[in-house]
Amino acid sequence: MRHSKRYSEALQRLDRRIAYNLEDAVVKVKELATAKFDESIELSVRLGVDPRKADQMVRGTVILPHGTGKKVRVLVLTKGAKEKEASEAGADHVGSDDIITQIQGGWLEFDVVIATPDIMGQVGKLGKILGTRGLMPNPKSGTVTFEVGQAVREAKAGKISFRVDKYGIINAAVGKKSFSPDQIKENVQVFMDMINRLKPSSAKGIYIKSVTLSSTMSPGIRLDKNQIVEAAKA
Q: How far apart are CA 213 and CA 10, in angstroms?
């Protein structure tokens, strides 16, 4: 696989033999993020679970204290009084039948979809469209609820959903290059604390196998998993 000149230069500035502590890794990832745009900072966690088993499917939500740095466009599918509640909470789009029709026609100008339970029968029509993009409202992620105002505020504040993929890896954006080192560090610690809390009782052996931090255009920086796990527990 051929890499860009920027990626190759960054790789030369990174000692792949070292497992960095979180503080040093954050400094290094900002140093390697040399693209002209505000690169996302991403965390990859490889878990010792078997995602094929329902009782080892690690998934959840977490509110990052400093958000992800991305402006989140929130769509609320609801009717009646809840429309006003959603709008007042800051939802970017609110509606029901009309918006469902727009989505069926290819409109996808949103990042999070929240729906009230009474409209899920109609939202089900969008399963193939929203499901493949990870946008389908789900009670487990708090996006199927009558508390739409709270759900909208949480989404805007930096609440993210995550789930382990078929390879046992969880990927999540935990900030931007423009964030301060402390902001990135705190987001990572909160995220890792949640991963620890979600350890399946049926998972045997090593739960967190590796943790890597990277920017959009940089190589991954291997973290000292023991240090980051202990920090997350603190």
A: 14
Pick from 190, 191, 143: nearest CA to 171: 191
Does the structure show a pLDDT above 90 at 37?
Answer: yes
Distance CA 59, CA 47 (A): 12
**Structure-token pair, residue 108:** 């996808």
Residue 78 burial by Cβ neighbours in a 10 Å radius (0-12, 13-18, 19+): buried
Domain architecture of the chain: domains with CATH? 15-68+159-233 (3.30.190.20), 74-157 (3.40.50.790)
Q: Mention every residue, 6+ apart, whose C-beta is less than 8 A from residue 146.
A: 82, 116, 117
Nearest Cα neighbor of 62 from 135, 116, 131, 141 is 141
d(CA 88, CA 150): 11
Of residues 76, 64, 93, 65, the one with CA closest to residue 151: 76
Model pTM score: 0.81
List CB contacts of 113: < 8 A, sequence separation 6 or more: 75, 76, 77, 130, 135, 136, 137, 143
Which percentage of the chain shows pLDDT scores above 90? 70
Residue-wise pLDDT tens digits, 90-110: 999 999 999 999 999 999 999
Task: List Cβ neighbours of 72 (8 Å cut-off, separation of 6 or more).
Answer: 111, 112, 155, 156
